[in-house]
Specification:
The chain is an alpha+beta fold. It folds into 2 domains: 157 residues, no CATH class; 218 residues, von Willebrand factor, type A domain (Rossmann fold, 3-Layer(aba) Sandwich). The chain is built from 8 helices and 22 strands. The strands form 6 sheets. Strands 14, 15, 16, 17, 18, 21 and 22 form a 7-stranded mixed sheet that branches. The longest helix is centred in the N-terminal third of the chain and has 55 residues. The N and C termini lie far apart (140 Å).
Length: 463
């Protein structure tokens, strides 16, 4: 009986331990499990997290695409500026007035293109063999029309076009083949920042998001900036002409004129407001200026020297203000009938006088030899002449006997003029500036270089 009671106690304890273990196991299951509400909340949080991640990924992808588009647009605009920069280096001069384009070079108007500026291109070789001078001179082809840069568009964006001679795969301009090429689109209608020109002697041109500054004396340098429709603009890039002597002595004179008002006490610039003046890359004042232009036979050679020189002279005259006093003389050698002189001395540029000079210049043609001295002798003795600007493409004799102010001078003409300036015209000397034109170089120690250096001027080389 006692044994049975003990057995019952053991069984009871075992049952209690079993129930306790089961209760603890149930409690443990309850502590580690999820309720339905918890599961729903967890699913919602997870879905929001995934959605946010996907949205962030989409934003990153879109930003990357936009950045790529912006970079591509900037690269295109940068390439366009590089192309224009190279074109200016290859060219002779910039043209910023549409009326200065040669006749028949405005066909772009029929295509709805508005003139921005142009680059005058020199005569071109069509192959490497064209530079062979065994026959006497290179075989160069004239490029009749300058390369015109113009714009199309008046709504949300502007397009930049290039109209002019093509470039073949070898890098040569094809003088007889031209095309109209759209080189940039998506240009903004406004600029993000205004382009500042280096001085008042630079002309400022603005067309929507395109701004250009062009130097008005040498017409060989430009500054350009473009603003794209994406709101980002390119930094200004300075484009300069080819390195020639005009970047030496002529640029020195330009810098001097910028730094010192009036260059000297007897000379005052009489150029149109906001611009300087130049003739063939030579800075001029238009203050009692006498132009001497060579019309000898060599000016009629195959690369259109005469036409280019006449166009340069007309542009120079047009850049002078109404109160300017100038004269024009065409020289060759006596007896050929090609020499012309507008007046005995400089005259004020009235409307009638401008028209007369334009008619005279347009009627010039080349023939005869190269004799600038008879006319230079006359001009340097004229008390109304302050500046002589001489353009020639050839050589000539450089010494002899001349009479200036009733006194006999012998030896170098350049030295004789200097002596006359120093002794007779010391208070009102005549400055002589020269332009070596047509591919030769008579500056430096050449006759044109000596003539200018000894008489207060400079000599520049114009292709």
């Amino acid at each position: 009986m006692k044994v049975k009671s003990m057995q019952n106690h053991i069984n009871t304890v075992a049952k209690m331990d079993h129930l306790k273990s089961k209760k603890e196991q149930t409690k443990q299951y309850q502590q580690t499990g999820f309720t339905l509400t918890e599961l729903l909340v967890g699913a919602l949080v997870a879905s929001l997290t995934v959605a946010a991640g996907m949205k962030l990924s989409q934003v990153i992808v879109n930003n990357n695409k936009q950045s790529e588009r912006n970079s591509a647009a900037i690269e295109l605009a940068d390439s366009a500026i590089d192309q224009i920069q190279q074109e200016i280096r290859n060219g002779e001069q910039l043209i910023d007035v549409e009326s200065e384009l040669p006749k028949g070079c405005d066909t772009y108007k029929q295509q709805g293109i508005e003139f921005l500026f142009a680059v005058d291109i020199p005569d071109q070789a069509m192959s490497l063999g064209a530079y062979d001078i065994s026959t006497g001179k290179p075989d160069l082809k004239a490029v009749e029309c300058p390369i015109v840069y113009g714009t199309v568009g008046n709504t949300e964006e502007i397009k930049l076009h290039r109209i002019g001679t093509n470039i073949n795969k070898f890098g040569y301009y094809t003088a007889d083949k031209t095309s109209n090429t759209e080189i940039l689109r998506h240009i903004s209608k406004s600029t993000n920042r205004s382009l500042k020109c280096p001085s008042t002697r630079w002309k400022h041109i603005k067309r929507g998001g395109i701004e250009v500054c062009i130097d008005q004396r040498l017409k060989r340098m430009a500054k350009l900036t473009i603003t794209l429709n994406n709101g980002r603009d390119l930094p200004g890039i300075t484009a300069e002409g080819r390195t020639t002597q005009r970047q030496g002595s002529a640029m020195t004179e330009v810098m001097k004129q910028d730094a010192v008002a009036g260059a000297n006490s007897n000379t005052v610039s009489k150029c149109k407001s906001g611009s300087g003046c130049n003739f063939g890359g030579q800075p001029i004042t238009c203050d009692k200026t006498s132009f001497l232009i060579d019309v000898s036979g060599s000016m009629g050679w195959g690369n259109n020297r005469m036409g280019r020189a006449k166009r340069e002279l007309l542009r120079a005259i047009d850049s002078c203000s109404d109160d300017a006093e100038i004269n024009v003389t065409a020289f060759s050698s006596s007896g050929w009938g090609t020499e012309r002189t507008a007046w005995n001395g400089p005259k004020k540029l009235t409307a009638n006088n401008r028209a007369y000079l334009r008619q005279l210049v347009n009627g010039l043609y080349p023939r005869g030899g190269t004799d600038p001295w008879r006319h230079t002798n006359r001009m340097i003795q004229d008390q109304n002449v302050k500046e002589i600007v001489l353009l020639s493409d050839g050589g000539t004799w450089t010494s002899g006997t001349i009479y200036l102010g009733g006194k006999r001078y012998s030896g170098s003409f350049a030295q004789s003029y200097r002596s006359y300036n120093n002794n007779i015209r010391s208070t009102n000397p005549v400055k002589i500036k020269t332009i070596s034109f047509g591919g030769g170089n008579y500056c430096g120690s050449g006759w044109m270089g000596q003539l200018a250096d000894m008489n207060g001027g400079s000599c520049v080389v114009a292709p």
